[in-house]
Amino acid sequence: MAEHAWMNDIRALVGKQYGRVYAWDPVNTPMARQWCEIMGIENPVYADPERAAASVHGGLVAPPAMLQAWCEPGPLLNHYAPGSTDEYPYEALKLIEAHGYPSVVAVNSELEFDRYLRPGDKLYYTTRLDAISEEKTTALGTGFFVTFLMTYCAQHGAGRRTEDEEVGRLLFRVFKFRPAAVQQSAPAASQPDASAKAGKPAPRRPAPGVSDDNRFFWEGAREGKLLIQRCKGCGTLRHPPGPVCPACHSFEWDTVQASGRGTVYSFVTMHYPEVPPFDHPNPIALVELEEGTRLVAQLVGVQPAEIEIGQAVQVEFNRFDGDLVLPQFRPVQA
Questions:
Q1: Cα–Cα distance between 151 and 120 in angstroms, integer?
Q2: Which whole-number Å values give the CA distances from 282 to 81, 134, 167, 331, in the listed order?
Q3: Measuring CA to CA, which residue among 209, 172, 158 is closest to residue 68?
Q4: Domain count, the chain
Q5: Residue 295 placed within a domain
């Protein structure tokens, strides 16, 4: 595909470095503790001073995966800390959009950490426009993959540092595109399915990846059982299944049959892209089982506007494409 002439000026931005965005607050234990509570992390080096002091860290540290969170603007859009740059690091996206590519979807996010952050570290990051791909055509539409690299640094002055110290990086890639034309079909009663008309089989639901670690879960589902992995050493329940207990590191495990009752801990409604054969909009929930562990599953029998955090749900096992059985959850009356 020939390059658009207007892309020359946009590609000239590749490699441009945008100024600093400062964190509102230094790294601190209360924020780290709240983040851990939300994420379900119980490592004492993030919140318990005595146990952290006895660890290899010699004191409290912050979860590495919080790196991006420290410099976020908060609930107000672009509300950055004083001293932050006024430059707009995503100007390339705006320029591409002006030429008829209005949509954007995040593609991947990759974090790298050089060291643990400690309470008192004062952070900032800079942004570099790292790359813009050739024009690509995907199922979503036609557009450009645009890659940004954020470099996070701790300011000098904390501890014995006399210079700013690079502590991690975030690679963030998005697809800026013109949506593919979607042909609207007539209702099924008056018009057969397009794939059937063409003699093609109807789309099938993608099968889950089955391994030695999770095979018991899918075999249980076929029998109408919701099985959760349990550590034989300490009794900790874990899902998704894995080979090692995250609490005591034992390799020994068995399973417990859950009641299937739980509550909606969190949820998201997928509107686009519309991927056959799923219904749309498609509500997906993080369900907290009454046994204490959580799992992700599709909600059925409910409109997205009716879903509420804390809503009681019950598992049901539904069969698709003949041999695929999936646990899904349906709201129940209080």
A1: 19
A2: 37, 32, 39, 15
A3: 172
A4: 2
A5: yes
Number of separate helices (H) and strands (E) present in the chain: 6, 14
pTM above 0.85, yes or no: no
Amino acid (1-letter code) at residue 19: G
Two tokens, residue 90: 């995503």
Q: Are residues 163 and 14 in the same domain?
A: yes
In whole angstroms, give the CA distance from residue 296 to residue 286.
5
CATH number at residue 318: 2.40.50.840
d(CA 58, CA 244): 26
Give the range of the structural domain holding residue 175, as residue numbers without chain letter: 7-27+62-179
**Are residues 227 and 174 part of one domain?**
no
Query: Does a structural domain hold residue 192?
Result: no
139-171 confidence digits (pLDDT tens): 888 999 999 999 999 998 655 556 899 999 999
CA atoms of 171 and 266, how far apart (whole Å):
27
Sign of CA dihedral 194, 199, 200, 204: positive
- Give CA–CA dist 282/288, Å, rounded: 19
**Cα separation, 321 vs 208, whole angstroms:** 13
Does a structural domain hold residue 187? no
Q: Which residue's entry shows tokens 């591409």? A: 96
For 262-295, write each residue's pLDDT tens digit.
999 999 888 877 777 877 888 999 999 999 899 9
User: Does residue 246 share a domain with residue 135?
Assistant: no
